[in-house]
Structure formats: C-alpha cells, structure tokens
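User: Sequence for MvdC family ATP-grasp ribosomal peptide maturase below. Tokens please.
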Amino acid sequence: MHLERDVVLLITHSGDFFTIDRVAEAVSKRGVQPFRLDTDKFPMTLQLQANLSNYDSNHRLKYGDLSFNTKQVQAVWMRRIWQPDLGKELAPQFQAACSTESLAVLDGFWDSLRGARWVDDLQRISAAENKLRQLRIASEVGLVIPRTLVTNNPQEAREFFHQVKGKMVAKLLRPLSYGMQASSFFMYTSAVKEEDLLDAETLRYCPTVFQEQIPKQQELRAVYVNGNLFVGALDASEYAAYTQDWRRGTKEIFTWQPYQLPDKLIRCLDAFMARFGLVFGAFDFIKTPSGEYVFLEINPTGEWGMLERDLDYPIADAIASALLSTSPKSNTLT
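Assistant: Structure tokens for MvdC family ATP-grasp ribosomal peptide maturase:
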C-alpha cells in the first residue's frame, strides 16, 4: 500500500518499544502518518530504491505492505541507527562487508530527506556525542564539570588518582548499549581503587576516561525538548553505597521524583543546546550535598521513557510538537 499523505519518519530498530510507540501515537493525533523505520531490518526486510539522473531523482522506501516517496517526509525523528541483521544464512566472511555497505547506503539515503525537519540533524548529533567537546562547551556556558583525565598512560592515571585524593571513577566515551535497560555487554561508571592501578598497562590498548568522584545527594536526568525541560531526580543515598551508576541498581530501589532546576542552570542549558544546534538532549547531573549542580554528560538521543512512564511527563508530545513545528527548519541537513 502506498501512503498518500505526509509522513513523519521514526528511525529506530526492531527491539525499540514504548518511547517509539508514544511518539508515533502523538504524531498520529496531529493528523500526520508516522512511519517506523527499523534500521536493523535493512536490507533483509526493508527495501530502499534510489533513481538518480541529470533530470530527476526519486527515492522510495518499502517496509512490509507500506511504501512512500521520501518527498512525502515532513519530519524525521532520529532515535537509533542499528547494525543490519543479516541472518545466519550469509557466510561469515561476507557479513562485515554487507553490513558496512548497507550502512553506507542508509547514510546516503538520508540525503534524500534533507528537506525534512530533523530532530535532530545527524551531523549535530555526531558532534554532540563527543564527550570531551561536551565538557568544554559545558564549562564555557557556565556549567560545573568534574576534573577529568583521558589517558592511555598508566603513570598519568596513578598521578591523577592521588590528585583527587583517591576519589576517582572510570567511564567510557561511547556507550556500548542503548535502551531503557542496558545489555549485559556494558561498562558502567565504576569507582577506581588504588590496587586497580598497580598493573594498568592495559591502558595501552584502550585509553580510559577518569574523573573525580563527585559526592551525590541526587542524580538528575533532565530531558530538553525544544526549550522545554522535563527533570527526574533519584535519591542517591538509596544506591550510592554500592554503585556509581544508577543503571546498575534494581528497579525496586529507584523512585523517580519530579524536579525543578534553578533558572540560572536552565539558562546554561539553553546556551549549551544553542551551541550544538540541538532540539533534543538528555542531560545527566549530580546535585551534591552542598547544593552544587555538576554536569556529567548529554546524550543527544538519550532515554526518557522512564520519566514519561513514572512521572507522566508529556515528553513524546513535546517531541511530536518539535517535529511538526512550523518554525524555520534551522536544524535540517544541508
């Protein structure tokens, strides 16, 4: 069946639920057709066709019984891009090449959507995922950041450990899993002990991010959508004794509470988002026992489903409004 009306394209993967469904529902209520594109289903199930010449270009997408021309796409929500699921029949020696080529075709396909409104632009998402750039921009707009060292030199790591008086954590620059529940293959933010650094030669193979350990009263997830903020707070005293990362705790421990950030901090977040040109972002902060707010990171495609689920925040509705905004397309691909 060919879709006749305008489409909002929702880019995700087949294992994504709740958030994608809520945004699709919010888009439908505004009279626009949502179209879910599960990127892991390309090329096995999802079909793309591009015809280009000096005279015309035409791009079509077919998924199941539905198809449309990309000229019909009014807006795009960039949630996730996933590795292709190529099944087990393809010989292992061809898997990597086919996966790489499929992702390259997808990357080229996005160009046919350059006239749509994106939340958010792929290049800006990529720029904002750089954690070191995040820390620099955060400091420049007035946010407090932790003392941070990124190194593959074991001696520098040991020296930094003593500089922060043994209060140090290790983390990754890039996540290894995505979703409301982390996969088993995931490195959480972890406290570092002195004995961990006695034989730290493995840093030669993988540089690590070390930060001073910030005392926690609360951990905050602040979801920013086109100037609107939805903030949830966790009482860190419930889990800080055994983990530095709230994602490691059991669901029973966590009770998300609504939270209001101070106006000064909100202005800093506005400036931060403007610097990156982002409409959406999920910020993580620590509020210390002394009342200081410390910026940890922003995930430009971060999780928010738990806040909508537990606090009844209208985040999906805000995303749909941002997608269908009539304001100038300042965030489109060029």
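The longest strand covers residues 218-225.
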